[in-house]
Design brief:
Layout lengths: L9 H11 L4 E6 L4 H5 L4 E2 L5 H10 L6 E6 L1
Antiparallel strand pairs: 1-3, 2-3
Organism: Halopseudomonas salina
Protein name: N-acetyltransferase domain-containing protein
């Protein structure tokens, strides 16, 4: 993202709109640098994932540092 576009709330608005259209829990994997953004919108670290997501996270973490998070929407 263009640094001039940061800190204007765009990501937060997109996230709020996406979450508003979903009923039930939302899980995501984010880069560690984005963890605070998701926390500020109600997401929390997810120590336990459904098996289908846990296996994907394990595969993705071979090449990326990712943090599992969830929102009980």
């Amino acid at each position: 993202m263009d640094p001039r576009m940061r800190r204007q709330g765009l990501a937060g608005h997109l996230l709020e709109n996406a979450c508003a259209s979903v009923t039930g829990p939302i899980w995501l994997f984010c880069q560690p640098g984005l963890e605070q953004l998701y926390r500020s919108h109600g997401f929390a670290h997810c120590p336990s994932l459904p098996e289908s997501l846990a296996s994907k996270l394990k595969r993705y973490q071979r090449s990326k540092d990712l943090v599992p998070m969830w929102l009980d929407n």
